[in-house]
Amino acid sequence: MSESYTDTIAYFTGLAAQGRFGRLRRGLEKEGLRIDRAGRISSVPHPHALGSKLTHPYITTDYSEALLEFITPVCSLPGDAMEFLADLHRYTYRQLDAELIWPASMPAGLDGNDSVVIADYGRSNVGYMKHVYRRGLDVRYGRIMQSIAGIHYNVSLPDELWQLLRERDGDNEGTLDDYRSRRFFGLIRQFRRHSWLLLYLFGASPALDRSFLPDGSVPKKLREHGRRTLVSPYATSLRMSDLGYQNKVQQQLKICFNSLANYVNTLRHAISTPWPAYEALGVKKGSDWQQLNANILQIENEYYSDIRPKRVTRHNETPSQALESHGVEYVEVRCLDLDPFLPLGIDEQRLRFLDAFLVWCLLSESPWIPDEECDRLDDNRRLVVERGRDPALRLEQNGRQRSVADWGHEIFAELAQAAELLDTLEEGSPHAEAVAAFTPWLDDPALTPSGRLLARLEASGEEFIEATLALAEEQAQAFREQAMQPAREENLNQLVETSHRQQRDIEAAESESFDDFLEAYFANAREPRVAKAQPGERQ
């Protein structure tokens, strides 16, 4: 265990006891496919009774009309975020009639590419841009990949912490925003070095339905189970494998998160640089838009990664410009599968564990990642995704070969210290209990969600769709029977009409053509933004 890490934990534990540490703040984004009672993806448009998917702050869609996305507000307590997410499910089930929400990351039954209906966000320029962006994803990667669901965990660290960290580091270079961004990128690098641990613990997609591979091919890594199911015996997360969210074109970007400037400049290069294969697809067919442009990335959101630096954007800012102007505000963890055994796909104990993991990433030493290490990190990640529960698996750490359990126990020892630090703000020890609860999973892969799902399929002989549909039915019945907070239910009722009215107002105010709108958007997106010094800070 690093002596400097232990000293840092001790330093902040004393400050936390004085009430000077503050609480983490978090929000959840949770996706889930709407399905029919036979376990097939829904072909019904997003229900009008759920509000406008363009303007509703909490209930929208991701790629397709069928892919619901629930968004919680920022919460100081994990339990508050979970309860809000639960109420969004309860409310939605009151509007779904006979439909269900699929509880797994790998999709329900599909009927080819066209069965995944691209989401329609209305007649406004901003709404049509969202739709055309999704058309571009279709022509580049196909729609089936976009039917996969997951959870994004957005976390910001206490405002009080940054100045305390800066004082301890003796770092007076630039503004406090500059310092916060540097430390956030250190957190991200440490996360990337060890995200394999989260994929092992919480990966929950070792199986898929044959309809996910419409050409009928069966990759060598998969074996047949029943008539319709394909499984990978030791896989943790097929969602995060080369069957899921992967893009070989993006791999040449080589973003290893060593600095904010490198990250922003690389993304700006990608949204400005044509790619021959995408040029061959065509941006338009006649007057019909096929994609926003033929560049490596249409927009920054197209870049896939396990974790992203984020900042809330202001008017007329792209995500990179917001980061460039004001620095990193929070991180978005993107490697979390839906656990089909949990009604919300995740639970409070896992949020507590993730909080300890992120604080550990922040307070640990995290040097820059050279290119050769970047490649090794990708290899470790791939190995755990494909073979994480294989007892013979070995990962590489600084030239050493380590088992998941051996390396994992070493990390858990340090996570326990981060958990104790966070628990100084709590009644009881919820973070320490979370770390303790998942410790046995290191030695027994059968306890993990991927292990449990595969064991169920093998023991019962069920198809993947059959087993997951049974879980969806159970969860739907429970949500439909549960009461909601009355004030929240009333607020959601009001938001339905408010969001539809807001969409109508946006469309009525439209004056420029979509071509002109898009040209202005990308002209603005190519402009670098200069960070402004804070009062009392020097540039």
UniProtKB/TrEMBL annotation:
It catalyses: L-cysteine + L-glutamate + ATP = gamma-L-glutamyl-L-cysteine + ADP + phosphate + H(+). SUPFAM superfamilies: Glutamine synthetase/guanido kinase. One of its GO terms (biological process) is glutathione biosynthetic process. Keywords: ATP-binding, Coiled coil, Glutathione biosynthesis, Ligase, Nucleotide-binding. GO terms for molecular function: ATP binding; glutamate-cysteine ligase activity; metal ion binding. Pathway: Sulfur metabolism; glutathione biosynthesis; glutathione from L-cysteine and L-glutamate: step 1/2. Its EC number is 6.3.2.2. The keyword ATP-binding applies. Residues 21-383 form the Glutamate--cysteine ligase domain. GO terms for cellular component: cytosol. Belongs to the glutamate--cysteine ligase type 1 family. Type 1 subfamily. This is Glutamate--cysteine ligase. Pfam families: Glu_cys_ligase. Residues 462-512 form a coiled coil.
